[in-house]
Design goal:
There is one protein chain. By secondary structure, this protein is of the alpha+beta class. The chain folds into three domains: 11-195, f41 fragment of flagellin, N-terminal domain, CATH 1.20.1330; 231-320, Helix Hairpins, CATH 1.10.287; 327-472, Heat Shock Protein 90. It is built from ten helices and seven strands. It has helices at residues 11-78, 81-100, 108-124, 132-216, 230-280, 288-320, 331-341, 343-348, 366-383, 441-451; strands at 327-330, 352-356, 361-364, 389-397, 400-406, 455-458, 466-472. Strand 6 (455-458) and strand 7 (466-472) form a beta hairpin. Helix 1 runs antiparallel to helix 2 (81-100) and helix 4 runs parallel beside helix 5. It is rod-shaped and about 185 Å long.
Length: 477
């Protein structure tokens, strides 16, 4: 194996690899996006729980303050030690609730003011009984200050909840935008990979298509070498084997035709010479019946010689069709040149030949295309009635150039249409008082047009014969 030949897997393996790469790319992005949003959901769930705890703490602090005020005032008025202990217990609970609200939830200065205010109230509860009523009024005023601090704490809690909600919303928006950009980039990259893999994997098939078209157009001199996946290379190797086999068969056919033609010409020459000697009376005078038989023999030897020469011409044309020498040619001028070349023939029949269409330049083998047009024109002249019209039309259509030739002769019989392009086939509708053709003219036209990658049609228009040449055309850039 050539060391520079890339080692590829099969087309199926490469296609599977392409799908896996794209799937891994999209799957990885999807998992990353899911993980990101899962983190945000967990963060949002934790924040919701924390918000509930903060609201509950603020409400509990307000409730504890109300209990503290009631216990404090009752203990001062009644002088009850049980109520005093209840105040202390409730105060401890309130301090624990405030302790649960950290510095990130409530400003430290507000929390410290609340604690100092509670300590001030606690100090007012101690004192002589005769000042209890005065202290009770002062405690009531101090609890108004405590309520104000409770309100500030509640507002701080709400601000904290709002700020965290805004932060979470900002993170969510940023994550969504980032995820959108990543997904769009991943989809674009996946599409780019898909297109790249499609082009990369499609190239060997385009080469296969060109190779098959080349075989169909009898371009057997071009070696077929397809690089690509292993199974595609195997198909290319089979096509190369087929090309070599077709080349061998073509050469065998050409050798056979040359050999058989040579083998036939030698005895045919002897036969013609013998018939000529008989007609000249070298072997003695001939009776009328003998002279008639000798004439029949002479005529048939001429027919057989013409057929052998036609066979050689067709074989040479089929070989030459594979050796195109393309050059840019103005087709309308080429058609006019062929019409002028046969001017004596169509003027002898008082025919009118019209060349229609705009100039078109195309890279063709001018000699072979001229021969194809000349054969079609010669047939049209041969079959056209005296004083008739032959139209040669040049037209450019999307992707092709058409050369159409119409005459006003008898046309082609319905039973002959399927075989009209076969070598040595002569149709039923032959012109009167005209030499019988060899039947290879249309076959040579088809060989030359197929070598150009084009097609030759017999269209169903009547009366007359209607032939069309279609050649591939690419617009110049």
């Amino acid at each position: 194996m050539n060391s520079r030949t890339p080692v590829w897997g099969s087309f199926q393996q490469l296609l599977l690899l392409a799908f896996l790469l794209i799937a891994l790319l999209l799957g990885g992005i999807a998992l990353r996006t899911v993980y990101t949003f899962d983190e945000l959901i967990n963060q949002s769930r934790g924040f919701s729980q924390r918000a509930l705890q903060l609201n509950a703490a603020a409400q509990a602090l307000t409730e504890r303050s109300a209990d503290l005020e009631r216990s404090a005032r009752q203990s001062l008025v009644l002088g009850d030690s049980v109520l005093r202990r209840r105040f202390n217990e409730t105060a401890d609970d309130a301090r624990k609730v405030l302790q649960a609200l950290g510095p990130q939830d409530v400003p430290a200065d507000v929390a410290n003011q609340w604690r100092r205010q509670l300590a001030r109230i606690d100090a007012l509860l101690d004192g002589p009984a005769d000042t209890a009523l005065d202290r009770e009024r002062v405690v009531t005023q101090e609890f108004r200050t405590l309520e104000r601090l409770n309100a500030e704490i509640a507002q701080a809690v709400q601000r904290t909840i709002g700020e965290r909600n805004d932060t979470l919303q900002t993170q969510l928006d940023a994550s969504r935008q980032r995820a959108t950009r990543v997904v769009v980039a991943a989809v674009a990259l996946a599409l780019a990979l898909a297109v790249a893999f499609g082009i990369w994997l499609g190239r060997p098939f385009k080469r296969l298509e060109r190779a098959i078209v080349g075989l169909g157009q009898n371009r057997l001199q071009e070696p077929i070498h397809i690089r690509g996946p292993a199974d595609v290379r195997r198909v290319g190797q089979q096509l190369e084997w087929l090309r070599l086999r077709l080349t061998e068969l073509d050469e065998d056919k050409a050798r056979f035709l040359r050999h058989i033609s040579h083998e036939l010409k030698t005895p045919l020459a002897a036969l013609r010479e013998g018939v000529a000697l008989l007609q000249d009376g070298v072997a003695g005078p001939l009776t009328d019946n003998q002279r008639e038989v000798a004439g029949i023999l002479h005529q048939n030897t001429l027919v057989l010689q013409n057929q052998i020469e036609a066979l050689l011409r067709f074989n040479a044309a089929a070989f030459e069709a594979r050796q195109l020498r393309r050059q840019k040619t103005e087709l309308r001028q080429l058609l006019k040149d062929q019409v002028d070349a046969q001017r004596l023939q169509w003027q002898a029949h008082a025919l009118q030949v019209r060349v229609e269409g705009e100039p078109v330049t195309l890279a063709v083998d001018a000699d072979k295309l001229a021969t194809a047009v000349a054969n079609l024109l010669s047939n049209a002249i041969r079959f056209s009635p005296h004083g008739g019209t032959i139209r040669v039309q040049l037209e450019r259509i999307p992707g092709a150039v058409q050369i159409t030739l119409r005459d006003q002769g008898p046309g082609v019989a319905a039973d002959d249409r399927e075989r009209i392009f076969e070598p040595f086939f002569r149709g039923q509708l032959q012109p009167q008082n005209a030499a019988r053709g060899s039947g290879i003219g249309l076959s040579i036209v088809q060989e030359y047009i197929a070598a150009h990658g084009g097609r030759l049609y017999l269209l169903p228009d009547r009366p007359g014969a209607h032939f069309r040449i279609e050649l591939p055309y690419a617009s110049p850039r």
